[in-house]
Every structure is written in C-alpha cells, then in structure tokens.
Amino acid sequence: MYEIYNMLNKRFPGWSDPPTRATVVEAIKKYDRDGDMLFDKDEFHTFMSEFLYEHSQVLWARMVKSVGTQVGLLPAAAPSVKSAVGLPAAVPDSVLSPIIATVSKAIKP
Questions:
Q1: Does the residue 59 lie in any domain?
Q2: How confident is the model over 18-71, as pLDDT tens digits?
Q3: N or C: fewer beta carbons within 10 Å in the chain?
Q4: What is the total count of domains within the chain?
Q5: Are residues 1 and 24 in contact, defined by beta-carbon separation less than 8 angstroms?
Q6: Is residue 15 part of a domain?
Q7: Residue 47 and residue 53: Cα distance in Å, rounded?
Q8: Do 6 and 50 fall within a single domain?
Q9: Which pLDDT band holds residue 10 (cuts at 50, 70, 90)?
C-alpha cells in the first residue's frame, strides 16, 4: 500500500498521506482471502479495484489539476514569461513550460 501511495504522490501533484499501520492491517485482513497476510494476484486486483473506486474523486481531481497545469496553463503562460524575462523568441514554449513548472515548485512555500 505504501508503494501505491508513493507512486501516486510522485505522479500527481498534491500530497496524500499514506495510511496508518492499523489501516494497512485492516485492509489486508479485509482482502486477504487465504489469511496468509499477503496479497496474491487476485486479492491485489480486488483490493486495487475497490481502492481506486473508493478514492476516485481525489485521484481524478489530482490528475485533472496536473494535466490542466501541464497542458493548458504552462504553455499559455510561456510567451508572457518569455517576454517578461527577456528571453529570445527562439526559445520554444515547449522547453520553457517545464522550466516554469520546476521553478514554481522550487519557490512554493
């Protein structure tokens, strides 16, 4: 479960705290049909299906925010930033957009 949270936190902006140990143990007990405290392929599939369904609103909100920023906002802001900073027109917006994203993440409190 911690690996799943880490993967989601790396892929989408916005932090979601991982579950507590008690929550993990409870989930294992709920989805572990054979009682070995490990998920086999089918148990893991069932767990992930229900986990993603239960948390779909939060996951979709994070994903839409990420895509909206990366595909819409940053490319639209790149020409203005280019002229404000005095960069030459030869610098492609597609190169400047990720730089803007990185700088904005670095200066965020």
A1: no
A2: 777 887 788 888 889 998 988 899 998 998 888 777 777 777 777 777 777 777
A3: C
A4: 2
A5: yes
A6: yes
A7: 10
A8: yes
A9: confident
Q: Residue 15 corresponds to which tokens in the numbers above? A: 């932090």
Query: What is the token pair recorded at 25?
Result: 């143990």
Residues written for the chain: 109
Query: Long-range contacts made by residues 100-103, C-beta under 8 angstroms, separation at least 24?
Result: 100/74, 101/69, 101/70, 101/74
Predicted confidence at residue 47, as pLDDT, reads 85
Question: Of 54, 73, 97, at which residue does a domain stop?
Answer: 54
Residue range 84-109: average pLDDT? Answer: 85
CA pair distance 91, 77, nearest whole angstrom? 14
Amino acid identity of residue 44, one-letter, is F
| Domain housing 9 | 2-54
Strand (E) or helix (H) holding 87:
none
Cβ neighbours, 10 Å, residue 55: 13
The span from the first CA to the last CA of the chain, in angstroms, equals 28
